[in-house]
């Protein structure tokens, strides 16, 4: 997986969620709180999600084969998309169902100190996990805002863990509020309302994750900074005089395909062009190390052909 930070954040979230899930189910057994049941299922689903992310990272490391010549880097995108589906169905829809049932058939919360104590413990544990995810994300986030980081990150693990932990913390606060008001008023409907809010929150987060991972699955180009570096690395000003057109595509979070038609002079020899292409590939890999698959096609740039649309304009 990309960075050890991504794996560290996933493992931290997995450990926290497993411990929290057990605590929540115990609290549900003693109190009968639907918020605790929904939160327990949520934590269990999150644990499964972290397992999926780790599995995707392992499968993505497989060597390329004749059937999959560009490797398996996109496995990580597929498993991140599965996470959004699990979060939507197992987490969000189940919580909405439980909330509806509790509002329709409310009952008082028994042994209120169990859910309250577990929720406080869960908030502390999730805060530690969330802090780890933030710390590891800052290594690669740079100057981007959090919104930009989630939308533009090519490695899906950290955005997934960030959104999961954020949703878990908000969900815990909602659960604590629902349980607290239900205990204070003696009206179990509030517990159901808290559960319903948790379900709606999880569905919103799942839809955001699905949209972002769908874009990665469809294939995203390199970031603007990397594109700028690649263009600067291609042109040497001697044999390679410009870029006619260029396309980039992420084959995985740490593997980039670069395909470009480059402009050369009509009197350059084949040997000179071949040497220039090899040098350009070396410069690209030095400027952008994740550019591992590079195809450069030489062509004679023609202004008239570009104007006619048969030869794209030189960049």
From TrEMBL:
PANTHER family: HUEL-CATION TRANSPORTER, PROTON-COUPLED ZINC ANTIPORTER SLC30A9, MITOCHONDRIAL. GO terms for biological process: zinc ion transport. Residues 11-218 form the Cation efflux protein transmembrane domain. The chain crosses the membrane at residues 6-30, 77-97, 112-134, 155-183, 189-211. Its main location: membrane. The lineage of its organism: Bacteria, Bacillati, Actinomycetota, Actinomycetes, Kitasatosporales. It is found in: Membrane. Keywords: Membrane, Transmembrane, Transmembrane helix, Transport. This is Cation diffusion facilitator family transporter. GO terms for cellular component: membrane. NCBIfam families: CDF (TIGR01297). The keyword RNA-binding does not apply. Pfam families: Cation_efflux. InterPro entries: Cation_efflux, Cation_efflux_CTD_sf, Cation_efflux_TM, Cation_efflux_TMD_sf, SLC30A9. Gene3D superfamilies: Cation efflux protein transmembrane domain. It is a multi-pass membrane protein. GO terms for molecular function: monoatomic cation transmembrane transporter activity. SUPFAM superfamilies: Cation efflux protein cytoplasmic domain-like, Cation efflux protein transmembrane domain-like.
């Amino acid at each position: 997986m990309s960075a050890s930070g991504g794996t560290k954040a996933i493992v931290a979230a997995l450990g926290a969620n497993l411990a929290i899930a057990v605590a929540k189910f115990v609290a549900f057994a003693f109190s009968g709180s639907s918020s605790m049941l929904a939160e327990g299922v949520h934590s269990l689903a999150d644990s499964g999600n972290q397992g999926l992310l780790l599995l995707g990272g392992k499968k993505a490391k497989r060597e390329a084969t004749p059937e999959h010549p560009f490797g398996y880097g996109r496995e990580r995108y597929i498993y991140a998309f599965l996470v959004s589906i699990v979060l939507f169905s197992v987490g969000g829809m189940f919580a909405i169902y439980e909330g509806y049932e509790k509002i329709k058939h409310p009952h008082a919360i028994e042994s209120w100190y169990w859910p309250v104590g577990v929720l406080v413990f869960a908030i502390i544990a999730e805060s530690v996990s969330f802090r780890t995810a933030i710390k590891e994300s800052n290594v690669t986030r740079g100057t981007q805002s959090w919104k930009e980081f989630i939308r533009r990150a090519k490695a899906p693990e950290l955005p997934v863990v960030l959104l999961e932990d954020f949703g878990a913390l908000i969900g815990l606060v909602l659960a604590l509020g629902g349980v607290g008001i239900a205990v204070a008023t003696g009206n179990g409907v509030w517990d159901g309302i808290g559960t319903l809010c948790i379900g709606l929150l999880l569905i919103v987060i799942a839809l955001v994750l699905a949209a972002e991972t769908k874009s990665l699955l469809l294939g995203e180009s390199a970031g603007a900074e990397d594109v700028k570096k690649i263009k600067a690395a291609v042109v040497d000003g001697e044999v390679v005089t410009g870029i006619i057109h260029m396309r980039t595509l992420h084959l995985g979070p740490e593997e980039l395909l670069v395909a470009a038609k480059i402009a050369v002079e009509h009197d350059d020899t084949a040997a000179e062009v071949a040497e220039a292409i090899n040098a350009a590939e070396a410069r690209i890999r030095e400027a952008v190390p994740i550019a591992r698959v590079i195809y450069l096609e030489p062509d004679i740039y023609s202004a008239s052909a570009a104007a006619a649309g048969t030869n794209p304009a030189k960049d």
